[in-house]
Amino acid sequence: PAADQEVFAAEMERTFIAIKPDGVQRGAEDCLELGFKLVGIKVVVPSKDFAQKHYHDLKERPFFNGSCDFLSSGPVIAMVWEGEGVIRYGRKLIGATDRQKSEHGTIRGDLAVVVGRNIIHGSNGPVTAKDEINLWFKPQELVSYTTNAEKWIYGDN
Ligand code: GDP
């Protein structure tokens, strides 16, 4: 929500991406081909309490309880992706919250049917990305490494 207004800079950053229980059940676990670097991944069934923490900024909304029940209803594939502009690019690839408004070619636009079952989550700004990564991952669960492709992705001049 308010975080959507955050300023995005083209700098190395990390974002939190999660395939929600419907995405896992529908076999969409390999639907995320960001071309960015995966630095953390695990499969978890979040507790209701944990889901409430994840969706804390929605607690006044009528769908808060339903969204928390749903997120804790089965396995979630939790990931941290890294790269320049990865937060905004991740959101673009995922598509609008409401499937009716998400573009064809986005994950939600192609796979989701209703807003409450929209397959995938991605942090909506730098502040939420940091909070969500801290909530879902311990620092030692994230790795730092250099890929051979990096100079071709970023150049060196
Ligand atoms: P997101 O950042 O695009 O996921 O969107 P929000 O942060 O606004 O909402 C979080 C999640 O709550 C969404 O991904 C949906 O699963 C759910 N949600 C949002 N709006 C609605 C709604 O109007 N109805 C229902 N049932 N769920 C909603």
UniProtKB/TrEMBL annotation:
Top-level taxonomic group: Eukaryota
Co-factor(s): Mg(2+)
Binding of ATP, residues: K20, F63, R91, T97, R108, N118
Residues the record marks as active site: H121 (pros-phosphohistidine intermediate)
Annotated Nucleoside diphosphate kinase-like domain residues: 12-144
Cellular component annotations (GO), alphabetically ordered: chloroplast thylakoid lumen; mitochondrial intermembrane space
EC number: 2.7.4.6
Kinase keyword on record: yes
One function term, GO molecular function aspect: nucleoside diphosphate kinase activity
Gene Ontology biological process terms, A to Z: nucleotide metabolic process
Catalytic function, reaction form: a ribonucleoside 5'-diphosphate + ATP = a ribonucleoside 5'-triphosphate + ADP; a 2'-deoxyribonucleoside 5'-diphosphate + ATP = a 2'-deoxyribonucleoside 5'-triphosphate + ADP
UniProt subcellular location: Mitochondrion intermembrane space; Plastid, Chloroplast thylakoid lumen
Keywords: ATP-binding, Kinase, Magnesium, Metal-binding, Nucleotide metabolism, Nucleotide-binding, Transferase
Assembly and interaction partners: Homohexamer.
Stated role: Major role in the synthesis of nucleoside triphosphates other than ATP. The ATP gamma phosphate is transferred to the NDP beta phosphate via a ping-pong mechanism, using a phosphorylated active-site intermediate. Shows the highest specificity towards GDP.
Family the entry assigns: Belongs to the NDK family.
Protein's recorded name: nucleoside-diphosphate kinase
